[in-house]
Amino acid sequence: MPLIMTPSLPLPSPDPLRRCVSCRGLFPRSQLWRVIRIAGSEDITLDQGMGRSAYLCRQADCLQHARRKQRFSQALKTSVPSQVYDELEQRLNPKLLLS
Ligand SMILES: [Zn+2]
């Protein structure tokens, strides 16, 4: 039996599915906001960082629901300051920055 050489396929792009903490839908990670609780601390950061992560759709509905239900606090098991939600709100509505 001839040895079949598997061609070395390029790795799939690193865009795994992640679950939105608000609507529970699965989406490619690149389409979600990422909120991170820095490992070993209570600090919360956005986008980049090592630690426990929570993801949210880039939609006003999901953001509002997440804020009302404190979804990030639940997912990250620490209190998430309202500035985090404010920051995401401003990304949705850049005009708010002008006020
Ligand atoms: Zn969502």
Following the backbone from N to C, one meets helices and strands in this order, namely EEEEEHHH
Average pLDDT, to the nearest integer? 90
CATH fold name, please? Hypothetical Cytosolic Protein, Chain: A
Question: Largest sheet, if any?
Answer: 3 strands, antiparallel
Global morphology? elongated
Q: How many E-type strands?
A: 5
CATH architecture: 2-Layer Sandwich
Which structural category do the helix and sheet elements fall into? alpha+beta
Oligomer: single chain
Characterize the structure shown.
The strands form two sheets. A three-stranded antiparallel sheet has the order 4-3-5. It has a two-stranded antiparallel ribbon with strand order 1-2. It has a single domain, classed as 2-Layer Sandwich (Hypothetical Cytosolic Protein, Chain: A), CATH 3.30.1230.10. It is elongated and about 65 Å long. The protein has 99 residues and is of the alpha+beta class. The chain has three helices and five strands; from the N terminus they run βββββααα. Strand 1 and strand 2 form a beta hairpin. The model has no long low-confidence stretch (mean pLDDT 90). Bound molecules: zinc ion. The site of zinc ion (ZN) has 6 residues, from loops. The site of zinc ion has 6 residues, from loops.
Question: In brief, what are we looking at here?
Answer:
This protein has 99 residues and is α+β, with helices and mostly antiparallel strands. The protein contains three helices and five strands.
